[in-house]
Amino acid sequence: MKGILGITGTPATGKKTVAPIVAARLGAKCLSINELAKSYGLVGAGSEVDVEKLRSKLQRDIDLNAVVHGHLLPHVFDSRAVCRAVVLRCEPGVLKDRLLRRGYEQAKVVENVEAELIGVVSSDSYDAFGEAKVWELDTTHTTPEEVAAAVVKIAGPSPKPVPRIDWTLDYDSGAKLRLLLSTAE
Predict the structure, then answer these.
(1) Pick the CATH number of 4-92+120-164 from 3.40.190.10, 1.50.10.10, 3.30.2350.10, 3.40.50.300
(2) What is the pTM (predicted TM-score) of this model?
(3) What is the pLDDT of residues 109-131, one digit of tens each?
(4) In the chain, N or C: fewer CB atoms in 10 Å?
């Protein structure tokens, strides 16, 4: 692997769990974008990250042969640094349950479920890295080990292309969307 293998996705799709497994299997360093931002003192009020400063520091400091994970991946690296980017995706209804179990505030649950539904991180990744460097994996009903095995294959010399994931086809009515985006118990 020459360059960064990026693992990104909406919160609660499995990045933090899968990345260390992948790094261990590849014999690579595992780096968290969020932890790096904290170590640089770039996390402000409300956990907002100064993306411009982080991008500058990472481009100067980062080892280009590492597994790097975080939802900010497409905002802090460009296609020159990233050899492959894997976007972990999760069915929005399942993602909603995961976020609620983690204690996310209702507004953040809705924001993240909407982002997953329309593929914000996926779209950002395709824009940042290009079609040839991005793979999407559905983590809804898979174990971290299964996802890690798929990522390791993607990191190999000739990974097979995978189709894009489109959750909007499953939420084709106003009633389904209202139910998905409601946080009332």
Answers:
(1) 3.40.50.300
(2) 0.92
(3) 999 999 999 999 999 999 999 99
(4) C
